[in-house]
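#random but structural
TW: two for the price of one
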Amino acid sequence: MKLINIISLFLSFFIFSSCSSYQIDKYSKNNQNVSNLSPSQVVFIALPENGKYNDITYSSSGKDTQQALNLIFSRYSDSVILGETSESLKNTKDIAIQEKADILVYPTIYNWEDRNTPWSGITDKVTIDIQIVSLKDNVIIDKTSLSSHSSWFTFTNDPPKKLLPKMFEDYVKQLYGY
């Protein structure tokens, strides 16, 4: 009977401890030119190229990244426009200006690793650089690199896109002065 209680307690601990789904590893910011963004500014979010790990390209990772940024920026901005194709920074600036945007959000996926964490214990990892450009002045007003990884102990195999919302939320809140 005592053994059953110990086993039950042990299993409960592992089941509930697996709820921790991510950690933000790195948050570097270069903000000499930063003034808080205004909700009235129109934000254009570029579509990044899909993320890769070695020879594997994750086909929806660019769209997933753009959608996660859209979710967060839409909470703070009155108007958000999404880019339709992956373009160079210069081409994206031109498109955003044609769309009458004030701010360009230009994400670049540097690392996207989707691992079978419950089976292997190897965590999912994401690294995304983001440039925030004032289109009126053609000045990079902020540039950051964000990295996150999943918990190594989990019973679920969530995709890397689950790491993005919290990582982006903290960053965007700072851009708007919260």
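TW: number two ↓
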Amino acid sequence: MVQNRFENSVINSSSLEDLVLSMPMPAHIKDAVTGKYILSNKKNLEIFRLKKLEDILGKTIHDLDKCMLPHWGHAFSKKVSDIDQCVKQKNKKMHSGDHLFVARNGFVYIHDMTKIPITNNNKVTAIFTYTCNKTDNIDLLTLFKIYKNIYSKPGEASKIFCHYLNIDKLLSSPLSCAELTLLLSAKDCNSRNDLANKICRSIKTVETHITHINNKVVVGDFFDTLDMIRCFEKSKEINMENFYGNKKNNFNWILG
């Protein structure tokens, strides 16, 4: 049994493990003394492009620096370690916001990080961490602008963002930034006139971009690709709604 002081309740370790593994956002548990990972869910593994739980067990945040340093910068692992130590010493839940880094798959993550001490006989033995991916709450057009600021090589931002949207498999070649911007803008428009007004371009320019996109789409057409983006956006909302609905009772002790 693992005691959580913040709710003055006792939580069964197997229930905690089930909760971590079922969370739709990255989550893990570390040993408070060694800093080594003792549990991680799939979402957390994906950030580091690890395939199996065994790939992260026994490692520390500094061990992950070897593969993540080019993506999250020199200060990130030290900052995480410092927060872990503070949680351990103060035996207090801590929240740290607005972290931005690039995962090994090239995707940009902007997240809040919450760390909760797990105690046994009033001693912190482990630290439970979950991150709320604020990336999911950012409009796709705004997020694409962030990608363009990070990736300076021509076409690189568009290529990686198409992969993020899971539409790259529909294309014979990557979309240009202008084409992808038009496609992202079109998801909330009802007509070509609406789209032209939204992006402040002529109808002819809109039609030219749509033709270019259609020439690159090998599965379906422009509208099928547009539907894929809408489904992608909707799936993120549904996943979070289902999680908080089904897990509300179990999750209250974290959010409380």
